[in-house]
Each structure stands twice: as structure tokens, then as C-alpha cells.
Amino acid sequence: MKKLQSIIDNDISNNDVGRDLNVGSTIVNIPSYDIKGGAEALKTLIEIHERLKEDSPAYLYVLDELQSKIKNVESRTIIGLEAKLDAADRNGYLSQGLKSSQKASKMILKYQHVRSYRIIFNHILGLILTRFNSQILPILKGGGDDVTVSTAINSTIIEPLYQEVSLAGGFIGSDLIEGMLYFLTEKCHVEWQ
Question: Where along the chain do its domains lie?
Fold first, then answer.
């Protein structure tokens, strides 16, 4: 069993907000995102989607994309969130992951038929997948500790997407975005190892 790491009596200094995070010998490169540009793009997508007819190819494409993200990946064995985090030796994320995944699942089920939320959910879920695979997975594969992984998840996925959706007029909290990460993990879209 892996011993839990702890940090005691340490100060973090010379680490300005918006810059890379230095944790011991590990440097977490925190990318910057154009939050305002992303929010404007999302607003435009919502507006266009609202005007589409239900048999429009673009409308049907978004529906198909959303459905592909909220269903289990058929080519992968469904083992549940607990087993996935356990296999990746990330049990510390389990309690919060279970709670937030359940919340996300309920919200997606409840609002997936609302036109604007179809776009928002598809947008968020797609960016979570992309950012997790490009930013978080390399840290996990490199043996990053929980502080580094959590910081990277918050700075590359949760906070930028929360701000972007908020600026676009969506009412989705950062806890729901976090839940969508674990929801995607449960559905086998996101792998932690």
C-alpha cells in the first residue's frame, strides 16, 4: 500500500497567480486559457443551436456527440469509479468523486433535453476529455503527487471551464464541472492511468 504524502510546516512563496506551480522538484506548467474568447464562442454556439430545426444535420450532430459522451464506452470494461481510482492508486479522490459524479449524472439527466444545456454539456464534457488527456494524464503517468494532480485539475479544467460557462450565461458551478470529470471516469471516457 502506498504511503500518503504530507506537507508540514512549509510555505509557498514566489509563486504568482497565473504562473507555474513549483512543488519541490516538480513544476506544474499551468496553461492559460482565453476565458472571454471561449465564453463568446460558447454563447455563439448556444445562439446558433437555439435557431436550428430539429432535423438539421448540425442539431443532430450535437445530439449524437452529447449522447456519445454520456453513455458508457462500449469497448472498455465497466468497473466503476472506485475500481478505476484504486487501479490508478488515487483512492484519495474517491469520496469526493462519488458525490460529485452522482450530482453531475443527475444534472445531465435532468437538463440534457434543454437546447442550451445540450451545447453547454457537450462543450464542457469535450473540453474535460481533451484537457485531461493532454494536461492531467501526463502528470499522472509521470507519478505526480496528489497536490500536483489536484492543482492541475483545478487550474486546467475546473476553474477555466467554470469561468467560461459563467461568462456565457450558464448556471453551472465548479463542483458540477468537477463532477463531470468523475462522471466521464465512470463512463470509461477518462482513464487515470
Answer: 39-186
